[in-house]
Amino acid sequence: MSTATATPPVETRTPTTNALTSGRLPRWAPWALLALSWLVFIVVFAIIAMAGETEFNIAAALFLGTVLFDILIFSVTYLVEGARQARDRLVTSLVATAFIIALLPLVSLLFTVLVNGTARFDLAFFSQSMRNVVGEGGGALHAIMGTLLITGAATLISVPIGLLTAIYLVEYGRGQLARAITFFVDVMTGIPSIVAGLFAFAFFSLLFDDPGIRFGLGGAIALSLLMVPVVVRSSEEMLKLVPNELREASYALGVPKWLTILKIVIPTSIAGITTGITLAISRVIGETAPLLIIAGFTASMNYNLFDEKMMSLPVFVYTQYANPGSDVQPYLDRAWAGALTLIVIVMVLNLIARLIARIFSPKLGR
């Protein structure tokens, strides 16, 4: 007698949707909406500028585009993902809007300098000086060389002093002397740049008994007064971030303290120290008042830091803008080109600092 085996019924499951993952915008959607919002207002402001109503305003275009993005991201998210996600994205976009608003002055500055500075950003500008040039032509080679020489000398003076001071404060400094150094570093941080120039001028005038002394090394001394507190503060904070366990492990192996600082502490914090030094250079490379007082200005080349007046890029920009000839436009073009060159130099210095930090920072294993 055979027994029939009953086949169990096949269950048909209907696909379920997860309310937390369904109806999600793709990751590129916010970026696309932001780019679209910016593009809309850039086109609008460009049309207005071409109509001759006003000049093109990149800051206003980006600001209004960001506001439009806030509206669009909330509306699109509300339609696709619901009210809860829409509120979340709106708050996130408002935080991003605050960040963009903080960057608008920098963006406007870079845009203005780039637009106005490219007119004379040519080979002649980087290969000629202003000697015997009146009106069109000429260049800023003498100012570029002066800026590099003066800032380089200031860096050679400031970095050893600032770094050694920071090492003393972190590794050795205790008691009244350390507190006094910290106090005076804080005071030096707030010194106006023109006071540093006046100090250097008075010092060298008394030293050489020459009330009309002007030379590049004096400018380097003045800039070093402004650089030292920045180097001290940034290096001190970076040295404090080095874990004490690394120092204690080195001491446990019998390594003396000076060698521990040289081989363990400084290499561990070299990335932050390099960044701080770059910030200090960027702080002083655009100073005009101290160099105008002690380094002076000239239209000729001068490679000697110890003799005669030496031009720098900030002073070059100031003199071209403040003392134009009968034809104003060539002087303004050279001033804008000098400002653009100064920005490019600072950008190159930051890239070099990042490269140095990446090369010399300690390689940690996984």
TrEMBL record:
Keywords: Cell membrane, Membrane, Phosphate transport, Transmembrane, Transmembrane helix, Transport. Its main location: membrane. Residues 144-353 form the ABC transmembrane type-1 domain. It is found in: Cell membrane. InterPro entries: MetI-like, MetI-like_sf, Phosphate_PstA, Phosphate_transprt_permease. Pfam families: BPD_transp_1. It is a multi-pass membrane protein. Gene3D superfamilies: MetI-like. GO terms for biological process: phosphate ion transmembrane transport. The keyword Transmembrane applies. NCBIfam families: 3a0107s02c. This is Phosphate transport system permease protein PstA. It comes from Conyzicola nivalis.
